Amino acid sequence: MGQRVTAKDVARKAGVSRYAVSRTFTPGASVAPATRTKVIAAAEALGYRPNALARSLIKQESNLVAVVSGNKENMYDMYFFDKLAQRLQRDSRWGLLVHSERDEDINKTLGDALTYPVQAAIVRAGSIDPDIVEQCKRLNVPLIFTGMGRAVAGADSIWCDNLDGARTATDVLINRRCKKISYVGGVQQVFSEESRRQGFCQSLKDAGLEPHAILCGDFSYENGFSSGMELLKRKDRPDGVFCVNDAVALGLINAAKKLGITIPEQLAVVGFDDIPMAAWPCFDMTTMINPVDAMLEAISDTLQQRVDNPDAPSMSVIVKPELVRRGSA
Length: 329
What we know:
single chain; alpha/beta; 17% strand
């Protein structure tokens, strides 16, 4: 494979200076029409495209946004990151996705991302060392946490009201007159898991009920299926289950089908997130909408406000989930 065509190559072919090539491809820069015509013709002949990353290094600014993800097997996060990339592109920004296999490696992952000329960093996993937050401040890189729900000094936060959403989801089961209501959760110490489990317990307590069973694993379909098989094979099986997310709920629904348990007649199931698969007729899942579009709108607005006013106080935006009723409960 040959080397990338450079501005120097274009200048040589067009018979102009590299400075003239640079100005031709700089929006708003003044350049003689005849020179512009020669440069454009030479660039098209050579297949030249300006190197945006190199230009950003020179100008000390870019439209790159680091997006830091952790190793959570979560269908919602996969959907979220896909939509986030689309939204950043719509805002004329480009996502630099950096992934960490373990939450404890998030600090190194974000630190590595900061070696690029990023305009901002969006973090949706793990906890961040205060030193990294301080490093972002020194580099004038806004830091936005999404999905964590805890304020971080020197950063902005955007998160779903998981506790209130979990209470609403559990109330659906209570209002169906389910008496043996269980919870299948994800990884403990993760904010969404803790707050959704807390909302579940609070709702039952207010109704004068005790949790029939609480199982925690991870955020995957496989956890929902294995937990479902365990719960539903019990002699005293539940008649209602709230799952920490839709992936877990999908697994649990399939476990019920495998055991010949009808939904919702013998078992009512409520999930959380409203991933596209939840609406498939084979699942027809009642769930809480964790509104991606509202989350992305808040991220976009917060990022722009932070870029426009770097010294403004930290912002925290809470996005409200909504119930969608389908056939599983």
